[in-house]
Amino acid sequence: xxxxxxxxxxxxxxxxxxxxxxxxxxxxxxxxxxxxxxxxxxxxxxxxxxxxxxxxxxxxxxxxxxxxxxxxxxxxxxxxxxxxxxxxxxxxxxxxxxxxxxxxxxxxxxx
Length: 111
Description:
With 111 residues, the chain is of the alpha+beta class. The protein is 28% helix and 33% strand. It is built from 5 helices and 5 strands. It has a 5-stranded mixed β-sheet. The radius of gyration is 13 Å and the shape is globular.
């Protein structure tokens, strides 16, 4: 199955470069449909560029705190000199939704 997701310019470029291999999302109904072996086509919100990826693993957690504690910050899209802060994700998801659904780290490879 093929899924589509939009990304801001920075994370999109990191996926294309191959350094960001974990896409972090709310584990809502849409993300619950994603299975290992599926494809995700990411679209850059700024340029419209697209990148096809394959899902190689799904990592479920109750919170972004747990997810961040289980992966190197580079894989999550942070630079070596940046602080990886799970609170960064609060700009995208409400605490109510996080409590209801939990989160998923979608591990991808470029196609």
